[in-house]
Amino acid sequence: MFFVVSKIFWVLAQPVTAVFLVLGLGLVLTALGRRRLGFGLSLLGTLALGVAGFTTLGAAMIGPLEARFERPANMPPSVGAIVMLGGGTNSRISAARGVSELNAAGDRFTETLRLAQLYPRARIVITGGFGMLGEEGEPEAATAARFFEGLGIAPDRLVLEDRARNTAENADFTAALLGDVDGPIVLVTSAFHMPRSVGLFRKAGLVVVPWPTDYRSASTEGLVLDLVNPVDNVSTLTSAIKEWIGLAVYHWSGRIDALFPEP
């Protein structure tokens, strides 16, 4: 139930949908003769879209998330397992074309590959099933297996977990799957996603070495105009809002112990 409710909520709450609903309501009210209220809502929606697309609000909001956890200053001498969280591929295209089509979070794959080459004895745990309601294609673990095997990683090093639908299930299913590990467990995911991920893995009983990647900001941006990258700005803001809401909801529901997990 939590999974279904969370996905439906986000469909309605994500910035593009929210702005569309506000603008649509403004037009309806105007057509019904409530012109002042309709105009106000339309103006609000337009201003919100402008701020989202033509300022660095998204980068300013995502910066603290990305700065929360850093990679260790010194590389571990050995690693028992490398855990990569799903979310870095397009499932539908990958399955249809028989490829591993990476999305904006594809750095999770390339960084995991680099770590796998640095630590040739480490197991590589790929956790990710279908993360969207009604998603078509293949579990992300299957796409990942094709990616890593195609780039020379031995199949017997891969541990595939293909049932997880969200980060909480990533942590729980991985903990059940791993068992005893001889050496540190390195966790690879997007930098903005790391605080919630670490909190969930701690709750599942796994102590991990955070290995953030897929940065969306320099963590130094203030709130200024940015007229060049409206699509990227909206995307970054969407990711930031989703992650801050996720932290609040997961803490409120007892899935993580701290509102903003720290190193």
The count of DSSP E runs of length 2 or more, i.e. the number of strands, is 5
Structural class, judged by helices and strands?
A: alpha/beta
CA-atom Rg in angstroms: 20 Å
> What string, H for helix and E for strand, traces the elements in order?
HHHHEHHEHEHEHEH
Q: Overall 3D geometry?
A: elongated
What is the CA-CA span between the terminal residues? 31 Å
Helix content: 40-55%
What characterizes the major β-sheet?
5 strands, parallel
In which order are the strands of the major sheet placed?
A: 3-2-1-4-5
Tally of contiguous helical segments: 10
**Unreliable runs:** none
* Rounded average pLDDT: 94
> Beta-strand percentage?
5-15%
How would you summarize what this structure contains?
The protein has helices spanning 2-13, 15-31, 35-54, 57-67, 91-97, 107-118, 140-150, 167-178, 194-203, 230-252; strands at 81-85, 123-127, 158-161, 185-190, 208-213. With 263 residues, the protein is α/β, with parallel strands linked by helices.
